[in-house]
Amino acid sequence: MPPSDLYDPEPAQRDKSPAPAYEPPAASSSSDPPDTYHETLAETKRALPQDTKGESSLRTKDEDAEPPPAYSEGYSPLQSFSYLMAAAGGASSIITQVQQGGPPINTIGDVGADETITMDLRGTRFVLSRDELLTLPEFVLLSLFPNGLFPEGHMGGSTDGDAIQVDYDPESLQYMLEFFRKVASSIPSESSPPPSQDGDALSNEPLGGTGRDDSSKRAGIIVLREDLDFYVIPPKADIKQPEMIEVKRAAARALLKQDGIFSGLKRSDEPGTTEAHLIEMLTAGGFNHDDQWGHRAGEPNKAVVCSLALARLRSDIRGNEMGNNAVGMAQKLLLFWRKPARRCWWEGVELDNVEGVEGTLKVWIRRVWTLEMSVIGLR
């Protein structure tokens, strides 16, 4: 047996394997390295981490395949409305800057439709089914369940110990539930035509279009929320903290009286501005210029006023009754289905007739609007 076979039991197979990327080219037979060189090289390669940069040709089919994405989103009916994004000014438009992140709240879809969840909202008890919860706007669900998931053991709970403690305004949720239930009761019940699939749930026609019979079985709801943070400028330099707290409470009561939805935007609604475009879109979709907030209340122990307004998306839009631009504005709201968008304004105001304050009270206001569309009747 040749001496090389003592160190390399399979020389034939070794000769057929490709040379590593970093191995120097073979020299002439007269200058071949001794057999101990190959043994040392093999031991060194086994001790070092494997280098795969130059071995793409040796990868298997499984290794060549691209890894699965970290997550995948299900099909959304909004894909059929991609052309509306361009009409709205593209993704760079301030009105269409939609929040794409956040935990998937639809994990409750794995729960049976007949199961319920019990919540305690600041002492008020709510028992809601899974189906009714799924009709609520995404930003409301994320406020009720910040983790995006239901804690185990709370589904179907009926005792006080099973109720989930939620820091959310119960009157705001009650107003929303009553509005959604009223809209749902106005939708005709299913008869002979089968329900449409999710991928065909929203067509390119308005929800009330005459092109499809099942359009009357769906209803869009515009959900508009305002979070108003206010910062009171002390009316005098030597004011004490207890007195300042009372001034803030009086300022909150004065702000609560300003309950017009668009009253805070009137100063900046000149034609061509973002505010004017937003007002035009909302009034074309279902609101009126003189509408008031459906629910408006201050947050406990905070200098915050939260407001909520709901409107059913107009289904009686016709091209001969409204301009084509207005029809496009109403349809544009469908871009916000399950995709809440936010807009922020800063404003300095002077409040008159504030209790305990002589003259006017200067206040800085930060308004945050959250706009989202909900659709009742989707399966």
From TrEMBL:
Superkingdom of this protein's organism: Eukaryota
Stretches with biased composition (Low complexity): 18-34
Record region (Disordered): 1-74, 186-215
SUPFAM superfamilies: POZ domain (SSF54695)
Gene Ontology molecular function terms on file: RNA binding
One Gene Ontology cellular component annotation held by this UniProt entry: nucleus
Ranges annotated as biased composition (Basic and acidic residues): 35-62
InterPro entries: SKP1/BTB/POZ_sf
PANTHER family in the cross-refs: G PATCH DOMAIN-CONTAINING PROTEIN 1 (PTHR13384), GROWTH REGULATION PROTEIN (PTHR13384:SF16)
UniProt-recorded name of the protein: Putative ral stress response protein whi2
Organism: Diaporthe ampelina
